[in-house]
Amino acid sequence: EVQLVESGGGLVQPGGSLRLSCAASGFPFDSYYMYWVRQAPGKGLEWVSTISTGGGVTNYADSVKGRFTISRDNAKNTVYLQMTNPKPEDTAVYYCVRSNRNYAMDYWGKGTLVTISS
C-alpha cells in the first residue's frame, strides 16, 4: 500500500524557516518523481515543486522560486521542502504527492498545515 506521510508543519513568523518532510512507503521510492502541492485557505490547489528520481532535476513555481528548496534522501525514502523567508501568502496545507509514469499526480498524503504569521 502506497503511503505518504507529511510532517513539519506549524506556525512560523515571516522571514523564518521551516522544513517539511514526507516519508514514503509501499513503493520503490527512488523510481518516482515527487511533488509538493499546496492549498491556501479558500483557494484551489497550487503546484509548488517537483524533484526527479535522483534529485538532480528540480522545478519550482514562480511564487516560491529562490525561497523554497526541494530535496530527497532515497536511502530514507523521504522528500523534503525547505522553506526560507516564508511570507503570509505561503500559508496553506502542503501535500506530498507521487508522480506516476506519465507525470500525473497519483497518490497524495494527508497534508500538513503551515501558517505564516507574526
Structure description:
It is a single chain. The chain has 118 residues and is mainly β. Helix content is 0%, strand content 53%. It contains no helices and eleven strands. It has strands at residues 3-7, 10-12, 17-25, 34-39, 45-51, 58-60, 68-73, 78-84, 92-99, 105-108, 112-116. The strands form two sheets. Strands 2, 4, 5, 6, 9, 10 and 11 form a seven-stranded mixed beta sheet that branches. It has a four-stranded antiparallel beta sheet with strand order 1-3-8-7, with no helix packed on it. The radius of gyration is 13 Å and the shape is globular. The model has no long low-confidence stretch (mean pLDDT 97).
Number of helices: 0
State mean pLDDT (0 to 100 scale).
Answer: 97
Shape, per Cα inertia axes: globular
Sheet/helix structural class: mainly beta
Order of helices and strands: EEEEEEEEEEE
- Kindly, what is the distance between the CA atoms of the first and last residues, rounded to a whole number of angstroms? 40 Å
Q: C-alpha Rg, in Å? A: 13 Å
Number of strands: 11
- Uncertain runs: none
What is the helix fraction of residues, given as a range? under 10%
Strand percentage, roughly?
over 45%
How many strands, what sense, and barrel or not for the largest sheet?
Answer: 7 strands, mixed
